[in-house]
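Run log // design_07
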């Protein structure tokens, strides 16, 4: 299981890097007249990354809810608040990303609507959510020595 978590973590971290770099350099190689063909290829692995990030965030959020009942000292309480905030922020950010991504992608696939403004938000948020979820999966997989 640890190897699977590490593999999923690496996928999310690589996807975050690829989307982030491509987002920055798109203006250098595409003037907008081609309809950003690279992004239509990126959408498929991005969809997998969004689903992995959402699933990982939801599982971690649920585990955090269970662990919240086991608070016995003030030190554990402070750690618990931080962990609770992290889990909640990651979960809700991944949920928003999932909704935005699917809406923008389905518009591209079925309505031929470019949805440029929404894609800007999706690309930036995907980098942040994928990094966060990828790092959490790495920790869950025993990546920290």
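design_07 sequence
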């Amino acid at each position: 299981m640890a190897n699977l978590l590490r593999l999923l973590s690496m996928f999310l971290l690589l996807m975050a890097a690829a989307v982030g770099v491509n987002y920055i350099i798109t203006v250098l190689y595409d003037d907008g007249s081609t309809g950003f063909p690279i992004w239509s290829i990126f959408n498929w692995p991005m969809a997998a990354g969004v689903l992995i990030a959402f699933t990982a965030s939801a599982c971690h959020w649920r585990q955090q809810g269970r662990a919240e009942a086991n608070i016995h000292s003030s030190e554990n309480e402070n750690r618990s608040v931080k962990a609770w905030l992290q889990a909640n922020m990651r979960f809700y950010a991944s949920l928003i990303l999932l909704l935005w991504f699917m809406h923008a992608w389905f518009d591209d696939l079925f309505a031929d609507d470019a949805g440029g403004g929404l894609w800007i938000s999706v690309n930036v948020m995907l980098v942040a959510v994928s990094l966060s979820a990828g790092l959490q999966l790495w920790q869950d997989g025993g990546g920290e020595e």
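The radius of gyration is 17 Å.
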